[in-house]
Write a structure and sequence with these properties.
The protein is α/β, with parallel strands linked by helices. Helix content is 27%, strand content 23%. It binds S-adenosylmethionine.
Length: 273
């Protein structure tokens, strides 16, 4: 019997994301105008690590308002994006029409994807800001795995659990863990702002959960997936700490003199034969 999900927390999160969509759509961080002029929102890491997608079916989990989904479509993939925020999905559909990039966008909770998505995809993709929103990593992973064809793979790129241990610090000298790496409790954020729109009002508390690298490995195995590789990176797409430096690729990294701790990870996993 699967554990029940904390529905009230998920509902608050959905409302929070709904409130953020118009601010994110207008933000420089997301760069909708650049996207409409033809720019890709995908980074070099995910482009290289996922590889050629032309003609492949790609399922994008927690796709927000679809810029990455549509960027995969521009690279030739046949894409389906899923998000539980109605506003995100409506905005994604609008951008698909406006950019004339074909895509299917569905509104669904990632933990209970519709049966119509099962065993259909060559690539299940999720990136940057996905796992902290799941209260049940095992369920998230089983859901992702069910989307795959036997020959397909899951690609996941997200903040490194290690980088989640630090609070709001202003300088590198203040950088020290304020939370246990192994903490299991939910954390709740209130107040305005997001990584892309610091002043956006968000009239709902946002609930997040912490996962360790060991939890990730266990969730993959538990979902019937074999980990092909696990990479650790020293960059993030957002300025998690004010003293990070932005590179020419738009990604944020440690400044010189600060030990290079892991900031993000990526993994590739396939269904066990
Ligand atoms: C940080 S954003 C993802 C960002 C995405 N990589 C991008 O930059 O466009 C997180 C997304 O996860 C979605 N989300 C959070 N919890 C979800 C859930 N349980 N089911 C489906 N979508 C969810 C939110 O609506 C939001 O669009």
């Amino acid at each position: 019997m699967p554990r029940s999900l904390p529905e009230r927390a998920l509902d608050a999160n959905r409302r929070g994301w709904d409130a953020l969509v118009p601010y994110h759509r207008a933000s420089d961080f997301y760069g909708v105008r650049r996207f409409l002029q033809g720019a890709s929102t995908l980074g070099r890491t995910e482009r290289t690590e996922v590889g050629a997608v032309s003609g492949k079916r790609l399922l994008h989990l927690q796709c927000h308002f679809g810029l990455d989904t549509l960027s995969w479509a521009r690279r030739g993939a046949r894409v389906t994006g899923v998000d539980f925020s109605p506003r995100a999905v409506a905005t994604a559909r609008g951008l698909s029409r406006r950019a004339r990039v074909p895509a299917e966008f569905l509104r669904a909770d990632v933990h209970r994807l519709p049966a119509s998505l099962r065993h259909r995809f060559d690539v299940v993709f999720a990136s940057h800001g996905v796992l902290p929103w799941t209260p049940d990593l095992g369920r998230w992973m089983r859901s992702a795995a069910r989307g795959l064809r036997p020959t397909g793979f899951l690609y996941l790129l997200d903040a490194h659990p290690f980088a989640m241990m630090f609070g709001d610090v202003r300088s590198a000298a203040e950088l020290r863990p304020v939370d246990s790496y192994f903490r299991r409790r939910e954390s709740t954020e209130t107040g305005p702002g997001s990584y892309a729109a610091p002043d956006a009002p968000v009239p709902f508390p946002r609930h997040q959960w912490n996962w360790t690298v060991g939890d990730l490995v266990a969730a993959c195995t538990g979902a019937g997936l074999r980990l092909e590789w696990f990479h650790e990176h020293d960059f993030l797409p957002d300025r998690r700490f004010p003293f990070l430096r932005r590179g020419r690729d738009g990604l944020w990294r440690w400044p010189p003199g600060v030990p290079r701790l892991p900031l993000s990870f990526s993994l590739k996993a396939r269904p066990l034969g």
